[in-house]
Predict the structure of ParA family protein.
Amino acid sequence: MTIVTVFNQKGGVGKTTTALNLAAALERRGCSPYGIDLDPQAHLSSIAGITAQSGDDTILSLFQRDRPLQELVQRSPTSGLGVIPSHMELSKVDTLFGKGYDIVNRLNATLRAEKFNTENTPVMIDCCPLIGVLSLNAIFACDCIIVPVSADHLSAKGAMQIEKTLRALEPVLKRRVNRRYLLTRFDGRRGMAWEVLKVLEEKFGADVCRTRIAENVSLAESPAHNKTIFEHAPNSRGAQDYETLLDELLADGFIQQPALTRNEREDIVN
Ligand SMILES: Nc1ncnc2c1ncn2[C@@H]1O[C@H](COP(=O)(O)OP(=O)(O)O)[C@@H](O)[C@H]1O
Ligand SMILES: [Mg+2]
């Protein structure tokens, strides 16, 4: 199934919120998604309730010791989501290993060699707000990118920069990277929110998600409870928005439909 990277080089735009809650929405459809935390701040790991004592049990050891990814998966004690956690020491990757092809392609090569994602195991990769070795690994490894853009001008600027970066990388990758720009923290009472939407639509056309994630207090609160939005406030606007987003991404073939048996499908519907 699909490997999705969530990236914007601006912080605080909803990357982690989107990676976590899209994974949770996929889980509700019968998938067994994995989250890979590529941010040294380790927010995804910490919301999932996973704290690594040392870098050794985290994604760092993929770079340091070529450790198999399957050995690094930990289960969230709250949501049950399979997460490969991050650690502060991950910030050293850029200086320790340089930017050679082998290192920026490491995650991609390992995911494919291990057949890590199967028909029923999508992977959501959460990135740090920098374009460096870690984010390049996420871009090289993914089938598609979601770029969350919180409805403000700096965040939109980050999106323009990513478009430039992707266009520069595509000849190296020898493919077009499927992308969707996702408006987050959208507050329709603010003129700026509509201005940013207009700019995105003019620049990126059909690559802008039709679904917008509204500013929602439950989404802001859920990390403090170590919960996904579906555990914390299943009837909230935030939960609805992430369900609608997943519907859109599945309908557009951006994320592959889960391969479920008829019994599994019926269990979910009932
Ligand atoms: N739609 C939303 N409505 C309200 N708060 C949000 C929303 N999306 C994210 N947040 C909050 O904004 C902050 C930044 O979001 P986060 O996902 O951590 O961004 P990033 O990973 O891009 O740094 C977090 O406190 C998060 O809970
Ligand atoms: Mg984050």
